[in-house]
Amino acid sequence: MVRRLETLALMVGLAACGRGGTNAAEEDRLGFAGATLAAMENLADSRVAKRLFGAMDSASQQTSEAIGFYSRGCAAGNIQLAETGPTWQAMRLSRNRNWGQPILVDFLQDLSAFAATQPGWAGLYIGDLSQPRGGPMLTGHASHQIGLDADIWMLPPDRLNLTPAERESLSSIRTDANRGAAVNGAWSPAHAAILERAARDPRVERIFVFPAAKVWMCERATGDTSWLGKIRLLANHNYHFHVRLSCPAGDPSCEAQDPVPAGDGCAEARQAVANILNPPPPDPNYVPPPPRGDVLMSDLPGQCLAVLTAD
Ligand SMILES: [Zn+2]
What pairs make up the disulfide bonds (predicted)? Predict the structure, then answer.
């Protein structure tokens, strides 16, 4: 019980500190409902979840289901994004993170086909999705745990015959300047078109990118701009952008994130750029969030044990 209360306190703290403005907490913000769901199960299992999920090299032979929250869950019945397709290549194959729920793999294939219509783009170079059974990772990423998140490189692919070795050594390119307050010369209308296409896709819940990219799109969008509300600001999303899908219909254990705020969010994006260029004085009442310990099996929904032990 003590463990459960601590877990709840930590999660509520995380949820509270993430409210409002540009912040790094949004990517892995856990809603209160997620905290209660996660804390109800597996109470006695104190094993560190990333060691277990990080050791799995194949998906579970189960019906596909996203279980838990984006930053606290696992994925049953993931499928593998093919290492190479007509309009994409999966990068950094050694990480074995080209696994996701079928809806995510479908989405990425569709988006890559659109990207291939853009000048200079043969398709998409696709970075991390999830591990074979999702779950926390040994390195990187607070989220990407339930097979519904994917990182997409900003580097326009000029060819789709990269060898596995090239996919380890090639780097993406940054598209920002001034710490996210401006786009640089590598940013192009094609980047914006691909982001818009993703944001307009009904499967997409939100997209993370650096502030100036959103401002660039805000300044040029015409007509219905409500899709811009799905474009969310997050530091360090300058070499890649991150697409998060909504919980698939029929996945009862998938925990939805708080919906994005109404409106296009363009004023917020402009303010974020202004704050980068002219940082406001630090808030004297700011309390840094407590350090986050390892996610334990007891922090995950109970079904994640079955995902781990399934064939
Ligand atoms: Zn990501």
Answer: 218-266, 247-254
